[in-house]
Amino acid sequence: MSNESLTTLTLTILFGSLVSGTPLLFATIGEIFSERSGVMNLGIEGMMLVGAMGGFATWYKTDSLLLGLLVGMLLGGLLSLLHAFITITLRADQVVSGLAVTFLGSGISSILGQPYVGQRVPKPIKLPFHALEYIPAEQVIVVVAGIILAILAWYFLHRTRPGLNLRSVGEYPSAADSLGINVVRTRYTYVLFGGIMSGLGGAAMSLITDPGWSDGKT
User: Fold this and answer.
1) Hey, where are the domains in the chain?
2) Exposed e or buried b for every residue in 92-102, given b needs 16+ CB within 10 A?
3) Which DSSP helix (H) or strand (E) runs through 212?
């Protein structure tokens, strides 16, 4: 094997590990914000599944990768609102609700995604660099976006006033309420954000990092 081929293979393997983990990074960032607000969300996989199925189905119908990602985010967000309503408004057990959301998302994606199993997948856009010719451009964009979002999430949580308010709601809700912070609204906001990020992770998986749809994709 030539040095050039070895370099290409090494870059592909190393980058592949980053690509595979990026959808989980999106979902993890969302869950961090949800848990910081005081709401544990075990329904992440269900939200990722509906995001993956909905995103792929949208792309299949429209050929728009961006629209597929947006629809995936929307569906993940809608499912997270169900979890928020059950746990915040109805004050039901967070573990039970999260598991129920996972089962619901799994069932919905399995039934509605059946027509898209084994269908065509998005064609990758090649980078104009010889050493990176086997790495799709959209995968590079997703990985860079994931790294940037992780840095921004850390900065928001630890270096901004809204981040301080968020942590106070999760750790000392009564104290936060006495300071005029709307605890319910804050929790709804960040549970919704967590669902959107989970939906994005699912859609990124079925459209970019591992194109295609199959039952139980995530």
Assistant:
1) 29-114+131-209
2) eebeebbebbb
3) none
